[in-house]
């Protein structure tokens, strides 16, 4: 392998694994949402169905 190929191999490895490590650290610090935005509740009196709608094809 040429020195340029080795350089790009090392650089791409650092970018990929560095991004993975950074995302794991970020999710470790802020793993859950503290508060959800308003308007996400189901309206009172409206039925909630567990099954998806049936589509007639």
From TrEMBL:
Residues 36-57 are annotated as: Disordered. Keywords: Membrane, Transmembrane, Transmembrane helix. The keyword Transmembrane applies. The chain crosses the membrane at residues 6-27. This is MetS family NSS transporter small subunit. It comes from Leucobacter muris.
